[in-house]
Design goal:
The complex is a heterotrimer of chains A (about 325), B (about 240) and C (about 290). With about 325 residues, chain A is an all-alpha fold. Chain A contains 13 helices and 4 strands. Chain A has one domain. In chain A, the strands form 2 sheets. Chain A has a two-stranded antiparallel ribbon. A two-stranded antiparallel sheet of chain A has the order 2-3. In chain A, α2 crosses α7. With about 240 residues, chain B is of the alpha/beta class. Chain B folds into 2 domains: about 160 residues, P-loop containing nucleotide triphosphate hydrolases (Rossmann fold), CATH 3.40.50; about 70 residues, no CATH class. Chain B is about 40% helix and about 25% strand. Chain B is built from 9 helices and 10 strands. In chain B, strands 6-7-8-3-9-10 form a 6-stranded mixed β-sheet, with helices on both faces. A 4-stranded antiparallel β-sheet of chain B has the order 2-1-4-5, covered by helices on one side. Chain C has a two-stranded antiparallel sheet. Classes of the chains: A mainly alpha (about 325), B alpha/beta (about 240), C mainly alpha (about 290). Chains in contact: A-B, A-C. The interface between A and C is large, with 44 and 45 residues.
Amino acid sequence: MRRSRKDINRPLLILLLGIAVLLPLVVRSNQYTLVLLTTILLYGVLATAWNIIGGLAGQLDLAAGAYLGLGAFTTGTLLIRWNVSPWLGMVLGGLVAIGFALLVGYPLFRFGVKEVWYALSSAALVEVLRVAFLIWNQVGGPVERYLPYHEWSLYHLRFATYLPFFYIMLGLLVLALLIHHWIRQSKLGYYLMALGENEEAAEVLGVNTQKCKLQALSIYAFLVGVTGGIYACMYGFIHPNFFSGPMSTEVAILGIVGGMGITYGPVMAAILLVSVREFLRANLGGQLEGLYLVVYATVLILIALFRPQGLGPLLRQAYDRLLARVAKE
Amino acid sequence: MSAPILQVSQLTKRFGNLVALNGVSLEIREGEIFSIIGPNGAGKTTLFFNIIGLQKPDAGRVLFKGTDITGKSPHKICHLGITCTFQVPRAFANMTVEETVRVGAYKRYQGREMSQKVDEVLRICELEEYRHQRCSDMGLAHLRRVELARALATEPVLLLLDESGAGLNPSELTGLMDILHRLNEEMHITLCIVEHVMQMVMSLAQRIVVLDHGEIIAEGSPQEISTHPRVIEAYLGKRVVC
Amino acid sequence: MTETFLQNLINGALTGCIYALIALGLSLIFGVMNVVNFAHGDFVMLSMYLTFWIGVWAGMDAFITPLITFPALFLIGLLAYNALIDRTLRQKYVTQIAVTVGLMTFLRALAQLIWKAQPRALPYSLIQGSIQIGPYTILASRLVSAVVSVLAIAGVYLFLSRTWAGRAIRAASDDLDAASLLGIPYRQTYALAFGLGSALTAIAGGLLMTFQQVDPTMGVRFGLLSWCVLAMAGLGSIPGLLISGIIVGAAEAIGMSFWDPRARSLIVYLLFILVLWLRPRGLFGRK
């Protein structure tokens, strides 16, 4: 019996989603494991969002931390000052992130800032915002600002357990994957892939490359901004260090290691690498500070050197082989 | 004689001290096969880039069907009906042939009509069997046809081809010339061929201009050009000696 | 007001000479082989720690340590080139960035592992005291640092223009294919450029340790800083690098005293972003 890929793909995805949904039941009330799983999902969302601007459009963005911070600060400040529900706050945070992305992206793309220089200027943005919020005492400042404590409040998105955040993040990941999948099949997706390969060639085929890049940047910024809102609620405070350079580069690395443009690549990379990192931290971190990062960085370098196309194609091959075997039986 | 579709007047482009184009004027008429030839470094590709909008001229104007398109961005010019292929193919390496052609077809179509356009163009360019092949796996001759196909998918009125015959063997060249002939006669696309390969130009083009050191030195039919003394001196001379 | 301004301008300009030296190393690496090195700032950090180590263990003054750290960093640079960079030359720039970001993380983690997270500083330096010119105080350590930096930059300039190896580097940066035809081995040339570019951070690291402390996260700051100087100068102009370094150093110092001490990096990065927007080829660049 021969089955097409599509017939197998969908049930498989639903099965994986089902496993993910049931996962917390297995770990029960082990908060450490829950945080770990939620963190993996968080990085999965960020890397999937990055995959739109970085993977499809080929713009090496290193500013995830900027949009994450903006989302977190918008949501957090609205909740602390005016008791605005984070559900609304995170959407507004996403919009603030879009606004900032457009403000910065327009001149960048207008003046043709590309490749390395785009990467560097986006990395600089994160630092600019971090320092700006450190100085801006009314909203930021050097001290953590705590969100109001609630044992269990859906309105305030504050819980004494990480369990709800796991499910919220899972939902967001599914949303991000759907958006990525949908874009990839759309006109915008084809335009982004084309300009990511060769901007001039895309232009003469009628692609408004500036506009498309801004659209991709906005979608990415929005998703990361919303994630930032949830991030703030999950940790219960906001701090200028949320504008984190290392986190931004890590998101990009996950995108690259996952295989640029491949829908499920970054999630796979997030599951794999964040687990490895946390495993190393748990087992090596106690004895020697920094050792787990040395090992982790070595893993990254080795993957980048020997699998420059990322792990995505590798996983795809393995999956195809598996399908072939299943089809034979 | 039909109406001019593209008018270039007094186009000048400098790179620092180097004058790449010096007051170039020419006219392309609707429905013809027009050709620009000239030795290496004559400014052919620069002229081409300034028409298509990839570079902005320092002086002069480009009119397309009477509207000024000087310095407009390439995607706007494409929308009006001019597109091009490149001298060194700029393939979308990680995309398949079909996906590449879709990028062009999306210019004017959506959904089912878009897919039909893709099928049509792939048939014209004889690429149907390579539909699902990735561009990074294809040879030069096929890549040139993919470039042609994706450009055709945008439904151009005027198509500029930059040295699309370079590096092809005689049989590949004949194949390409057949396709170009059909485009011109059946689909009524005006062609402007920037070329180095003389054989192709002489049998295809109806009118030729010769560019040397950024200036037009001759203009006329293939017969007139091949006997023009300045052309022989600047360009063909080398070949006559061989 | 004017006095404070000028005092900061002088201090900043002197520090800026060191920044120019760091950026010169980066410019050798990026300009010659088009390699995007995100780990350059972490080489500076590494140099500073090595200086600290030698200072503590051998009691050597920070000014003299480059005698040891310069060859050490040159070797580390060669190693990094041969083990990592050479393999990425034919890859997309994205792969290069992934590899050098990995190297950056590696070096930072290594520093944390060996020297722990708290800042380290050397207790004293041979060159003490200050010079008083009118109302302005110039710290001797800064003045000497600036002079040494400028001399080092001049030395590199002479190396590039007068020696065969230096000319090979320049030829390779202009046109690699033509250079190969002339019999210039690209691999050795690239390795030399990378080694030299890294070794220059050794001098900078020694100079910096005479008046400031080091911590493992410092690399990012120097990395972005040197990219900023390079972006402002454009490729291929050594005097341009010096001027840009001085501008960046001065802007940093003035921002710190007139706005907020924490605004230090803010000024630099804003400057960087503005330069990229308005003058993508830099103020003095030829490419």
